[in-house]
Amino acid sequence: MKKVFILDTNVLLSNPLSIFKFDDNDVVIPISVIEEIDTFKKDQSDIGRNAREVSRVLDKLRTRGTLSSGIRLFDTREDSGQLYVYLGHNMDILPELLASSTDNHILAIGMTLQKQFGDTRRVIIITKDTNLRIKSDAFGLAAEDFAADKVDISHMYTGVTEVSVDATIINKFYIDREIRLEGEFFPNQFVIMEDKADPSASVFGIFDGTEKVIKMVDPRTEGIWGIYPRNMEQAMALECLLNDKIRLVTLSGQAGTGKTLMAIAAGLAKTTDEDQYQKLLVSRPIFPMGRDIGYLPGDLDEKLNPWMQPIFDNLELLLGGSTGGRKKGMNKSHQELINQGMLAVEPLTYIRGRSLP
């Protein structure tokens, strides 16, 4: 049974190409959703860019026909679904207490189409708005979150794999400091080798994609800038950050697991200790928690300070803060390194479009 999906504004703003994610089913966009998207077009954020992209996509599609009567979403597929921009909505179908709003227009369209198609088509409202899904359920309408933009974290590449081996393999690995194993490994992937007879006995190495061997990872007993890995995962992260052959490292984990601290420590080590780089650039995205940044008092640095404070805290810890763990003999503040041109702290928003040396 083919389905009819009615898209809410937030779905299109989160993914401008979401209309192409429903295979051979039909997609309906209420005209009130188009109007709501239009209010975001001048926004300079990702939402504004997505709003403008939605307009471009729809403008391109309308050259194939008339949006009100339906346009094929895929020219190359025989089973292509149709895209409709729904112009009318009968608010009389809803209780009088419900005010006229985009959400309620969507509900009215959903109930109208459900009445029109009966058992021949299933009508589903797609929205990221929890309350709209609740109201849809109350009116007997099917409603779902937009699942195409959901990522199951358990399916993410971890950069680590485990293999069971004989104790002789582990002993040989300790002696030769590298070993070649059968199996498919990815470049720079960490391989944990566990003893088949005693799983508590294990060792890990990193796979060299060029030589196709697993190499021993040297324990960093001296730490870097007073930072020592406290578990195997942190040891792996530190190895990646300090390995000159690895040009890009992405770390994923819960808050407080040391991702930012280790990354900054490794950057300082490469910049100030080894002189491999002229400057360390530290950045993070700005997510307003209260008033927008433009309304905050002070100059740009003062406006950005609340968002950059977690980075400053880590820098103070490494450079001479009272909480300890700093590099021995280093008492500079992060402001001194900034003044010397060795450190730059900037919001991610202002890096877009720049060419960094």
Brief account:
The chain is an alpha/beta fold and 357 residues long. It is 33% helix and 17% strand.
**Number of DSSP E strands:** 13
Strand content: 15-25%
Q: How big is the Rg?
A: 28 Å
Helix content: 25-40%
Main sheet summary: 6 strands, mixed
How many domains? 3
Q: Which consecutive residue ranges, at least 5 long each, have pLDDT under 50? A: 322-326
Tell me the name of the CATH homologous superfamily of the largest domain: 5'-nuclease
The succession of helices and strands, N to C, reads EHEHHEEHEHEEHEEEEHHEHHE
Distance between the termini: 56 Å
> What structural class results from the helix and strand content?
alpha/beta
Mean pLDDT: 83
> Can you tell me the CATH topology of the largest domain?
Rossmann fold
Level-1 CATH class name of the largest domain: Alpha Beta
The CATH architecture name of the largest domain reads 3-Layer(aba) Sandwich
Q: What's the arrangement of strands in the largest beta sheet?
A: 3-4-2-1-5-6
Tertiary shape = extended
| Helical stretch tally | 10
Please explain how this structure is put together.
The chain has helices at 9-14, 31-38, 46-61, 102-117, 130-138, 167-176, 232-242, 259-273, 300-319, 334-339; strands at residues 3-7, 26-30, 71-72, 82-86, 122-126, 142-144, 160-165, 178-179, 190-195, 202-208, 213-216, 280-284, 343-347. With 357 residues, it is α/β, with parallel strands linked by helices. The chain folds into three domains: 3-149, 5'-nuclease (Rossmann fold, 3-Layer(aba) Sandwich); 151-217, Archaeosine Trna-guanine Transglycosylase, Chain: A, domain 4 (Roll); 231-357, no CATH class. The strands form three sheets. A six-stranded mixed β-sheet has the order 3-4-2-1-5-6. The chain has a five-stranded mixed β-sheet with strand order 7-9-10-11-8, with helices on one face. It has a two-stranded parallel ribbon with strand order 12-13. α8 crosses α9. Mean pLDDT is 83; it is low at 322-326.
